[in-house]
Amino acid sequence: MAQDQTPEILRLSLQDLVLRVKICKLGSIEQTLAEALDPPLAKNIRRAIDALVDVKALTISEELTPLGRQLVKLPLDVFLGKLILLGCIFKCLDGALTIAAILSSKSPFSAPMGARSQAEQARLAFKRGKVDHGCYQAIWPTLMSLGDSDLLTVYNAYYAWRRICNQSGASEQQFYHKNFLLQQNLTNIEELKGQLTTSLVDAGFIELRNNEKASLNKCVSYRDLAVCC
Q1: pLDDT greater than 70 at residue 8
Q2: Rounded to two decimals, what is the model's pTM?
Q3: Can you tell me the distance from the alpha carbon of 68 to that of 17, in angstroms, rounded to the nearest whole number?
């Protein structure tokens, strides 16, 4: 092991560590973590506790809540984990998974030297909901197109790509080229959605039918997953 390697406890999410201290009933959060061989900074521990209280994973007295017990099962920042659980409850899981995956991934937009102006125009088209599919232009039918943020811009681009994936005869390469999109980053978002879906299944939050299990790693929609939250 390299001498300058960061200790594992400092590489893990402090929010996750705090939840595990409570799950394992190890006593005071701050005292338990302070006694580690390479303890996190006290201010960082406090910041993690405050974030967990804010998301309702801990009470003000730092007791674990029912939500906290569920969030510890998900390999995500607790705020994104809560978003996904709410997506289960309110039957908008596909959108919640997409947003969580986007916020955990690199932007799919590129801005190559010599073509930054064209790339910005392509990005703005998704921001307005006006999508160039390479074969035609369409107003993307989603309420998200009414938004004005980087997140919703990527959201629109992702779903435009998904539509191209499922469209017979469409040229994906032409779509990437004309819209200055990176195939690998879009694929990473899709794969992360699949991983998060697997985590939800493993934790017992959702159930998959046989055909959904078979197509989990393909370019498929998660809207119709059977929810058992």
Answers
A1: no
A2: 0.81
A3: 12
Cα angle, residue 71 at apex, residues 66 and 72 outer, rounded to 5°: 105
Helix extents (H) in 180-216: 183-202, 210-214
CB 162 within 8 A of CB 181: no
Which pairing describes strands 206-207 and 226-227: parallel, antiparallel, or unpaired?
antiparallel
Cα–Cα distance measured from residue 25 to residue 70, given in angstroms and rounded to the nearest whole number: 16
**Residue-level pLDDT at 35:** 93
**Highest mean predicted confidence (pLDDT) among 76-80, 169-173, 208-212, 218-222:** 76-80
- Beta bridge pairs of residue 207: 226
d(C-alpha 180, C-alpha 110), whole Å: 5
For residue 140, give both structure tokens: 């993307």
Strand ranges, E, within 35-171 = 130-132, 137-139
Report angle CA 10, 203, 201 to the nearest 5 degrees: 120
CA 9 to CA 13: how far, in whole Å? 8
**Which contiguous run of DSSP H or E holds residue 163?**
helix 150-165
Q: What are phi and psi of 104, to 5 degrees?
A: -105, 10
